């Protein structure tokens, strides 16, 4: 567990620094929220844009620190649409101030509040549990009683933690007519426990920053302890805990309420991968929109938080303008799925997520290969937040020299060289047969774009863990890699690499274990690559 603790400390320190820098950028400290709902706002804040810092009593009497931004000249003679913004994980209540001002200038009442358990808000961190959802309704109640907000025109939005809370609130409060959920989750377990594998760096970052900036509840502390310790005896309880906090398990309520839902995420989100958002999107029956862009967790929206031009926030405003103000801005007539490739180019519109990868190309994995476990071959998914940020801005994804990967620790299959550009869109899928010398184990699959010199650029990856298998007995594995949009140049090839260790994940390979990958004639192995229909 030593490596878990060190990773946790490093991730926590880095994110905490980012939180404090963001606060400094706005020129406000968390202590600025010390006012109460009935306190007179300062002259400076009033002059700025109708901003005041207030206390709102949430569920069970817990005090939530909040700020309210109202349109210039707003009074009791006219009602304005309301947008409620719960803060992201570990972020102070000033997080959305730049966007709140923009919304207020456009005629919205905006209430942003620090989620319970963080910074100066009361209570404990419940990870979007029932108290958090009740808090959202209490904030709406407060806004309707203390601001010129219109009870018939209420929206919620947020980044990351705020996105999850907003979706869950929409499922439980029919007053919420529109939601914009950016870099959030629909299925919490499928996000950080996909392939039955603990996403180590993601969980360590969340746990570490929660300790630094808030007060994790005893339940959260126990769940995180069991998660990082790989306690399979608690697996069912952990999954049930996550399901209670997952909008995907309450999608019928959102559909029944008719909520207009816009989802935004990044292809390389290492905390909430895009697969679970796309699956959730397909289950929505009301007005909906899905936007996926290059980047990592919350990086696609980050510049907007500083008030800079940002596509995600621009479309968030358009979404609210149409669904809360009735503005005919055309967003309802655009293709509802909007994608930008990691390798460049403009937006591509699709009628549905299932139409994104309309064509399919299979790469057969014909020859049998075996690998020894417990050693990182050099193929890996990079570093949480950093690697995909470099891909977003510099087009520098994680790389590996495919010819130099040690074949004792990495299985490698390659396609032929392609004569034309291969526009990968959607979710690649691996099907293979595995034989292990141990009952438990972990494998990680990587799809690489390989150039003429053998340098592979990571296209996608995903982990898979198995337990309770009979040693020496083959079993089938079906694994969805993380969804992506990537153009493979003509003259390049695709390579599938499988090894057993990646710093992003906790691995479950006993010392000395060996995995063999085969392709029985009755059940051939392959990787299915989705391609844009030309």
UniProtKB/TrEMBL annotation:
- Xaa-Pro dipeptidyl-peptidase C-terminal domain location: 317-527
KW Signal (keyword) present: yes
Q: Which InterPro entries match?
A: AB_hydrolase_fold, FrsA_esterase, Galactose-bd-like_sf, Xaa-Pro-like_dom, Xaa-Pro_dipept_C
**Keyword annotations for this protein?**
Hydrolase, Signal
Pfam families membership: Peptidase_S15 (PF02129), PepX_C (PF08530)
Q: Which SUPFAM superfamilies match?
A: alpha/beta-Hydrolases, Galactose-binding domain-like
**Signal peptide bounds:** 1-39
List the residue ranges forming a coiled coil, or say none.
Answer: none
- What would be an example GO MF term here? carboxylic ester hydrolase activity
Q: Which family does it belong to?
A: Belongs to the AB hydrolase superfamily.
Q: What is this protein called?
A: Acyl esterase
Organism the protein comes from: Streptomyces kanasensis
